[in-house]
Write a structure and sequence with these properties.
The protein is an alpha+beta fold. The chain has 12 helices and 16 strands. The protein starts with 8 loop residues before the first helix and ends with a helix.
Length: 370
């Protein structure tokens, strides 16, 4: 069955009864839908499985999503139910990854999906583990795009503010930290986008609502998801110039020009690495700016462009200007530690080694915030 639409629990029940779900070499030989257990508790199915002469019965809890929260909820419900004698717990999701199957096996809970993956556990009698089948129900997977492009600013915010009272505060913070959007008066992020992103973060067990607060609970997993979904921007023109100014003077001049021209001028993530980790970088100073020609027209020209000391990367990607950090002494804006981490992890071996330091600092800072 190929589907781009959201799967429903009724679809899952139908596929099970029509024999469209299988897990060789096991045979599903008896199916009872919506059985009632002790205390009136109802689960979604009783499934009898055969392997050779062995038969085992499983109580099945179904969920129509494949998120970490759906997995946890299904496991909690089936393991807390008072099951009939000789009946083992099982869950059923549209898709189960290898990592999820391993987690189930470690907990002694069986699980099958609609794609041909599964683990069946009968302690001391039976253990079958099958994985590698692709997800045929992508709409039931975690919403990946919240970790990508502009929506990723919501996820990034929680690494700077791991405890926030209300969704409206998340919206206000995201828009206030969006430097490019503010200066160029772009359409701000709206409440619906923020709510969708927060819901996905909750489904992924990265953010939770505790005592009236939205709280970041897995900073390391959030960084992993941002990195997995990070796509370096396709930069516009990159210009390199030899500007006859020493580094401190050049920095000061860029700050003044940014204010005079009302332009965002921000160091690239790679160039910001020295702000967050011990690292030596070359003489070339690299910045993002959406209109480099405006800057260049106001900078003193050099006699030659040999041995350039300034690189301007044309970019209108809002994420590279998001949550920039202002130097108290110079007023210059540096990329956020998250942007630095993501860019360095896409760099060479030395950059990746330095990125580990930045990652550790991000996680340490989250843990130390009140």
């Amino acid at each position: 069955m190929k589907s781009q639409k959201a799967i429903k629990q009724s679809d899952m029940q139908r596929m099970l009864t029509e024999g469209k779900i299988s897990l060789p070499p096991l045979k599903f030989c008896s199916i009872q839908l919506a059985p009632v257990f002790g205390g009136g508790r109802q689960l979604d199915a009783i499934l009898e499985i055969q392997w050779g002469i062995q038969r085992r019965r499983f109580a099945v809890e179904m969920k129509a999503l494949s998120t970490p929260m759906a997995l946890r909820t299904a496991v909690n419900e089936v393991t807390s139910a008072k099951l009939p004698p000789d009946t083992l717990p099982m869950i059923m999701l549209p898709y189960l990854s290898a990592a999820q199957l391993q987690e189930l096996a470690q907990g002694g809970v069986s699980g099958i999906d609609l794609c041909g993956n599964g683990v069946v556990v009968a302690p001391g009698e039976l253990f079958v583990f099958r994985t590698g089948q692709p997800n045929r129900f992508p709409s039931s997977a975690p919403i990946k795009n919240i970790y990508r492009k502009n929506t990723s600013m919501v996820a990034r915010l929680f690494l700077a503010l791991p405890r926030i009272a209300r969704t409206s505060e998340v919206l206000a913070e995201v828009n206030s930290r969006n430097l490019l959007g503010s200066i160029f008066r772009r359409s701000p992020m709206v409440m619906g986008t923020v709510s969708k992103a927060i819901k996905a973060l909750e489904e992924d067990l990265i953010v939770s609502r505790q005592q009236g607060l939205l709280r970041l609970i897995q900073a390391d997993k959030l960084l992993d998801n941002l990195l997995d979904n990070y796509r370096p921007q396709n930069p516009g023109e990159t210009v390199r110039r030899k500007v006859p100014l020493a580094a401190p003077e050049l920095l000061g001049r860029l700050v003044l020009l940014g204010k005079e021209l009302n332009l965002p001028v921000v160091a690239t993530g790679l160039n910001s690495a020295t702000r967050y980790a011990v690292m030596q970088r070359g003489e070339l100073f690299s910045i993002y700016c959406p209109q480099p020609e405006a800057l260049l027209s106001r900078l003193p020209p050099g006699e030659s462009d040999r041995f350039p000391n300034l690189e301007i990367v044309t970019s209108e990607d809002e994420t590279v200007y998001f949550d920039t950090r202002i130097d108290d002494e110079t007023g210059f804006r540096w990329a956020s530690p998250i942007q630095a981490y993501l860019e360095m992890m896409r760099g060479d071996k030395r950059d990746q080694e330095t990125a580990v330091q930045v990652r550790d600092e991000i996680i340490r800072a989250v843990g130390n915030l009140p």
